[in-house]
Design a protein that fits this description.
Shape: globular
Distance between the termini: 57 Å
Number of strands: 0
Number of domains: 1
Helix content: 55-70%
Order of helices and strands: HHHHHHHHHH
Mean pLDDT: 81
Oligomer: single chain
Low-confidence stretches: 205-230
Length: 241
């Protein structure tokens, strides 16, 4: 049985790697699409109307939900792939707001990679605005969603993600998340780049909903066909806009 399980395990790991590569490719494609839509909106004269902006936002968020089958992990990874540009705030702000306030359960918030990813998403969202009230509203949403403290280390691969977080004074550790949100303690873009590097290297937080167990190949193929069809539709929208 041991001899049979080793090839089986190797096959499972290879399938997981293929799934991860596929997911990362789709994330890159979708991030390019969102950037294209942002540029299209900002180039409109006269300025875009609220109804048009709402349609654009719904199109983007709807595409993300379809392509990633509602996976909050993959949608937030896509948000982190977007280059910061204040000129794109008009469309990016409602996109971030829609994704980060959906109320969808976050299964991986109890892990260090999941916690750091979501913390960075909220920090990136805050970077799009300058008003104190807007920043406070984002902080409030983050504090409702995130645990009060960073989770404990579960795997060796967690350490590289944990090191991205700056040290927190001992008196603030019980409210670590609030402290990290309110204070600008690190270079956000550098930290996001490091997170993406570690995620691609370790496969941190591989989405389990798209990494089915061996023996469920038909489900994997069906899910991939749905996602690929959605991606083709997205690219088609870009080419005809």
């Amino acid at each position: 049985m041991v001899q049979q399980s080793e090839p089986f395990s190797a096959c499972s790991r290879e399938k997981a790697r293929q799934t991860r590569r596929y997911q990362l490719t789709v994330i890159d494609i979708l991030a390019d699409y969102i950037r294209f839509r942002c540029e299209s909106v900002t180039s409109l004269h006269p300025p875009v109307q609220p109804a048009t902006l709402l349609r654009e936002c719904n199109r983007i968020v709807g595409s993300m939900f379809v392509i990633f089958d509602g996976s909050m992990e993959l949608m937030t990874l896509t948000l982190l792939r977007l280059s910061p540009n204040r000129q794109h705030t008009l469309l990016l702000y409602p996109v971030f707001e829609n994704v980060l306030t959906t109320g969808t359960a976050h299964a991986d918030l109890g892990t260090i990679p999941g916690y750091v990813r979501m913390l960075l998403c909220f920090k990136r969202w805050k970077s799009l605005v300058s008003g104190r009230d807007e920043k406070a509203a984002i902080d409030a949403q983050a504090n409702r969603l995130l645990p009060g403290r960073c989770p404990t280390v579960q795997h060796t691969s967690d350490l590289c993600f944990l090191r991205l977080l700056p040290p927190v004074p001992s008196g603030q550790r019980s409210a670590e998340t609030r402290y990290l949100l309110v204070h600008d303690l690190f270079n956000l873009e550098h930290c996001i780049a490091q997170f993406q590097h570690h995620h691609r290297r370790t496969g941190g937080g591989l989405d389990e909903s798209t990494a089915k167990q061996p023996g469920d190949n038909s489900s994997i193929r069906q899910r991939r066909l749905v996602s690929v069809h959605a991606c083709v539709s997205v690219v088609d929208c870009v080419s005809h806009s």
